[in-house]
């Protein structure tokens, strides 16, 4: 509890944009997020008042972070599971707990758990050598998707391999891997569900995520033209997983939609890129809901504030770091605001690097094609200064 306010203190491991936006939600609840960041210029470290610098793999840093905090939670999956158990054994509240979180940390652990529960997922195998990959490909056909069980994000740690030779090189480099069939998918979907220790759950509509090179570019809400039965099935699947694993906080279930239904790709147990739209697009954002859930507060309404919401990420382009900073960026924000007064900007305060998530924009409306075009054009303009001809600035900018 905070001595001045009498309100809880939530500590979050990780100082990225998820932590930054959770801090923003914490402020409205009378709180201030305590953040463990690796550097003072990380997104959340730039804005939160209670920042500790340290490494998420350092048990002492984690123990210091937890000291006096009501509950400890995460903006990424990379804390060693053993450290989390040590924190729990020392009497600290950790949400989600290590027994749940390991399913978002380790893709092999998740595959085994889903198999045991009989939930739909791609054909998979644990592979430790090229023979095993070739045997798996004998059943599913090449190419095969190989994944590092731990530590991947934004498509890093995901490899499409076309033959035994490529597989051999990867297994040689990484050791035991998860092999998956390359799913012939219609599209990718995601479901966000929040679950509190009390057992209350709250869901947002099923969304469609649009990935490019393994990185999320756009989120369309609700998932366009999604069959009602399939939507309900996806939501029920997410609730079953949250309940079975005892998740506390936000759970994002990434799904592949196929001709037959949906398959579970992976889980995230924290606010997730597929839920950023909810800041403006829902009565309760995923960030506020995550705080409510980890604190065992009653959950907020997830009703949408508009019929259609589109979120587009601003991904770093080719600009050199020097060109990006200072006047160029400021001027670009100025033009963005002038041209898209109806699109909301979330800027993460990060330096420019190719492919890096620098921010996102959210557009609301009624017509999917119009809302999507607006969000994508605005995000693209922020990323590289290129104006879609359909949205040309009247004064030629
Ligand atoms: N078995 C598969 N078949 C086809 N495409 C796949 C498969 N697995 C992954 N992909 C593609 O690669 C993307 C990244 O995979 P995955 O979500 O496992 O990796 P990640 O790096 O952990 O992701 P994230 O960016 O969500 O952290 C998926 O969103 C999907 O587009
Ligand atoms: Mg993913």
UniProtKB/TrEMBL annotation:
<dbReference type="GO" id="GO:0004638">
    <property type="term" value="F:phosphoribosylaminoimidazole carboxylase activity"/>
</dbReference>
<dbReference type="InterPro" id="IPR040686">
    <property type="entry name" value="PurK_C"/>
</dbReference>
<dbReference type="Pfam" id="PF17769">
    <property type="entry name" value="PurK_C"/>
</dbReference>
<feature type="binding site">
    <location>
        <begin position="180"/>
        <end position="183"/>
    </location>
    <ligand>
        <name>ATP</name>
    </ligand>
</feature>
<dbReference type="InterPro" id="IPR005875">
    <property type="entry name" value="PurK"/>
</dbReference>
<dbReference type="InterPro" id="IPR003135">
    <property type="entry name" value="ATP-grasp_carboxylate-amine"/>
</dbReference>
<dbReference type="InterPro" id="IPR054350">
    <property type="entry name" value="PurT/PurK_preATP-grasp"/>
</dbReference>
<dbReference type="InterPro" id="IPR011761">
    <property type="entry name" value="ATP-grasp"/>
</dbReference>
<feature type="binding site">
    <location>
        <position position="147"/>
    </location>
    <ligand>
        <name>ATP</name>
    </ligand>
</feature>
<comment type="pathway">
    <text>Purine metabolism; IMP biosynthesis via de novo pathway; 5-amino-1-(5-phospho-D-ribosyl)imidazole-4-carboxylate from 5-amino-1-(5-phospho-D-ribosyl)imidazole (N5-CAIR route): step 1/2.</text>
</comment>
<dbReference type="InterPro" id="IPR013815">
    <property type="entry name" value="ATP_grasp_subdomain_1"/>
</dbReference>
<dbReference type="InterPro" id="IPR016185">
    <property type="entry name" value="PreATP-grasp_dom_sf"/>
</dbReference>
<keyword id="KW-0067">ATP-binding</keyword>
<dbReference type="GO" id="GO:0046872">
    <property type="term" value="F:metal ion binding"/>
</dbReference>
<keyword id="KW-0547">Nucleotide-binding</keyword>
<dbReference type="InterPro" id="IPR011054">
    <property type="entry name" value="Rudment_hybrid_motif"/>
</dbReference>
<comment type="subunit">
    <text>Homodimer.</text>
</comment>
<dbReference type="Pfam" id="PF02222">
    <property type="entry name" value="ATP-grasp"/>
</dbReference>
<comment type="similarity">
    <text>Belongs to the PurK/PurT family.</text>
</comment>
<dbReference type="GO" id="GO:0005829">
    <property type="term" value="C:cytosol"/>
</dbReference>
<feature type="domain" description="ATP-grasp">
    <location>
        <begin position="111"/>
        <end position="295"/>
    </location>
</feature>
<comment type="function">
    <text>Catalyzes the ATP-dependent conversion of 5-aminoimidazole ribonucleotide (AIR) and HCO(3)(-) to N5-carboxyaminoimidazole ribonucleotide (N5-CAIR).</text>
</comment>
<feature type="binding site">
    <location>
        <begin position="265"/>
        <end position="266"/>
    </location>
    <ligand>
        <name>ATP</name>
    </ligand>
</feature>
<feature type="binding site">
    <location>
        <position position="107"/>
    </location>
    <ligand>
        <name>ATP</name>
    </ligand>
</feature>
<keyword id="KW-0658">Purine biosynthesis</keyword>
<protein>
    <recommendedName>
        <fullName>N5-carboxyaminoimidazole ribonucleotide synthase</fullName>
        <ecNumber>6.3.4.18</ecNumber>
    </recommendedName>
</protein>
<dbReference type="GO" id="GO:0034028">
    <property type="term" value="F:5-(carboxyamino)imidazole ribonucleotide synthase activity"/>
</dbReference>
<feature type="binding site">
    <location>
        <position position="188"/>
    </location>
    <ligand>
        <name>ATP</name>
    </ligand>
</feature>
<comment type="function">
    <text>Catalyzes the ATP-dependent conversion of 5-aminoimidazole ribonucleotide (AIR) and HCO(3)- to N5-carboxyaminoimidazole ribonucleotide (N5-CAIR).</text>
</comment>
<dbReference type="GO" id="GO:0006189">
    <property type="term" value="P:'de novo' IMP biosynthetic process"/>
</dbReference>
<dbReference type="GO" id="GO:0005524">
    <property type="term" value="F:ATP binding"/>
</dbReference>
<keyword id="KW-0436">Ligase</keyword>
<dbReference type="Pfam" id="PF22660">
    <property type="entry name" value="RS_preATP-grasp-like"/>
</dbReference>
């Amino acid at each position: 509890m905070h001595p001045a306010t009498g309100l809880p203190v939530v500590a979050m491991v990780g100082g990225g944009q998820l932590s930054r936006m959770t801090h923003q939600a914490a402020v409205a609840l009378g709180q201030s997020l305590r953040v463990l960041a690796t550097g003072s210029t990380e997104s959340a470290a730039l804005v939160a008042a209670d920042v500790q610098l340290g490494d998420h793999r350092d048990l002492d840093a984690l123990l210091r972070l937890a000291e006096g905090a009501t509950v400890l939670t995460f903006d990424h999956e990379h804390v060693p599971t053993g450290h989390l158990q040590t924190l729990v054994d020392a009497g600290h509240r950790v949400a989600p707990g290590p027994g749940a979180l390991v399913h978002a940390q380790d893709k092999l652990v998740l595959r085994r758990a889903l198999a045991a529960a009989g939930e739909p997922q791609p054909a998979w195998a644990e592979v430790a050598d090229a023979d095993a990959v070739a045997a798996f490909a004998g059943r599913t056909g090449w190419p095969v998707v190989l994944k590092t069980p731990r530590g991947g994000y934004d498509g890093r740690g995901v490899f499409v391999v076309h033959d035994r030779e490529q597989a051999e090189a990867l297994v040689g480099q990484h050791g035991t891997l998860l092999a998956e069939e390359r799913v012939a998918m219609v599209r990718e979907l995601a479901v966000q569900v929040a679950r509190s220790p009390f057992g209350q759950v709250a869901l947002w509509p099923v969304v469609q995520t649009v990935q490019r090179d393994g990185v999320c570019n756009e989120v369309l809400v609700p998932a366009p033209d999604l069959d009602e039965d399939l939507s309900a099935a996806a939501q029920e699947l997410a609730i079953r997983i949250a309940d079975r694993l005892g998740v506390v906080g936000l759970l994002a279930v990434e799904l592949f939609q196929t001709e037959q239904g949906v398959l579970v790709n992976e889980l995230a147990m924290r606010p997730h890129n597929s839920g950023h739209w909810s800041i403006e697009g829902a009565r309760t954002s995923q960030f506020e809901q995550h705080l409510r859930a980890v604190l065992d507060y009653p959950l907020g309404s997830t009703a949408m504030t508009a019929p259609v919401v589109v979120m587009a990420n601003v991904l770093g382009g080719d600009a050199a770091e020097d060109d990006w900073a200072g006047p160029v960026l400021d001027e670009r924000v100025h033009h963005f605001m002038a041209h898209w007064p109806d699109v909301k900007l979330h800027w993460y305060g990060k330096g420019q690097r190719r492919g890096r998530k620098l921010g996102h924009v959210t557009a609301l409306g009624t017509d999917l094609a119009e809302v999507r075009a607006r969000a994508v054009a605005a995000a693209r303009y922020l990323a590289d200064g290129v104006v879609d001809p359909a949205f040309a600035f009247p004064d030629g900018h």
